[in-house]
Design goal:
- The structure is a single chain.
- The chain is α/β, with parallel strands linked by helices and about 270 residues long.
- The chain has a single domain, classed as Ribonuclease Z/Hydroxyacylglutathione hydrolase-like (Metallo-beta-lactamase, Chain A), CATH 3.60.15.
- It contains ten helices and 15 strands.
- Strands 7, 8, 9, 10, 11, 12, 13 and 14 form an eight-stranded mixed beta sheet that branches. It has a seven-stranded mixed beta sheet with strand order 6-5-4-3-2-1-15.
- α8 runs parallel beside α10.
- The radius of gyration is 18 Å and the shape is globular.
- The structure holds zinc ion.
């Protein structure tokens, strides 16, 4: 299994950090988690074609996590995707996908169909997840979700279990009291860390996010082996490029496992 951080940034147009997105390669499948700004370009940098993404898991519908979805769908279609992309996400994902693919691009679609293009694999298959727990299981893997409290919108965390590994990938937000149990013994916890507690306290949206000491507490309680932080908003707002490393140090102070600060293109082999 291989984890690739495609985009370690968030809302703002930081040229060095793409919007939220990551890739998990399991067996022959490519799974993308969130699809923010520049996700598809970073996917290409990782050597993966848009049409070869089998499943896309959306954590929530804040624009910074989903703004590259039409590009992923259209370039995959144009380059001849073999089967429809499967998109998983919270309630509202069907509405989002049904409005962002066909209606604004009708002229484009019709012109391509007029030139012989088949549109049978254009529309993604959308699966909305309404409840926490296991939602997909095969002989090779189990996928489960739980929710975080984030800006008043449904926000999912995904857990991937294979025979040998457990990986947890968060969106944004504050987890509930059962989150440590959800992450128990994970090999990797990929978690948002938008700023220090002091910085978040100064932002109107700060309470939507978890703090470094809280991450340390969860990772310790859950006996997580490795943590990677992402959604590194503080850098964009303060201009302080060392802030993210101080956040990493804050987590290390209270947690004995490995802590990595996200960078676009960073690869973790599990
Ligand atoms: Zn968000």
């Amino acid at each position: 299994m291989r984890y690739i951080m495609l985009g370690s940034g968030a809302v703002r147009d930081n040229p060095n950090r793409g919007g939220p997105s990551q890739l998990l390669q399991i067996g022959n499948e490519n799974w993308m988690f969130d699809c923010g700004r520049s996700a598809c370009t970073n996917l290409a940098r990782a050597g993966v074609n848009c049409e070869d993404v089998d499943r896309l898991f959306l954590t929530h519908l804040h624009f910074d996590h989903i703004v590259d979805v039409p590009y992923l769908v259209f370039v995959g279609w144009v380059k001849v995707r073999k089967k429809p992309l499967k998109i998983y996400g919270p309630v509202g994902t069907k509405h989002f996908v049904s409005h962002v693919i066909r209606p604004p691009f009708e002229q484009d679609i019709q012109s391509r169909i007029g030139h012989g293009k088949d549109d049978s694999v254009l529309d993604p298959e959308v699966i909305e997840i309404e409840e926490k727990g296991e939602f997909l299981s095969t002989d090779d893997f189990q996928l489960s979700t739980t929710f975080t409290d984030h800006g008043g919108i449904p926000t999912l965390v995904y857990r991937i279990d294979t025979k040998d590994h457990r990986v947890v990938i968060t969106g944004d937000g504050n987890p509930d009291a059962e989150f440590s149990a959800f992450c128990q013994n994970a090999d990797l916890l990929s978690i948002e860390c938008s700023g220090t507690a002091e910085f978040l306290a100064t932002q109107p949206w700060g309470s939507w996010h978890i703090t470094p000491p809280e991450i340390a507490e969860i990772a310790t309680e859950a006996n997580v082996k490795r943590v990677i932080i992402k959604h590194l908003v503080i850098e964009d707002i303060t201009g302080d490029l060392q802030a993210v490393h101080r956040m990493g140090d804050q987590i290390r102070k209270e947690y004995g496992g490995e802590v990595m600060v996200g960078e676009d293109g960073l690869v973790i082999n599990l």
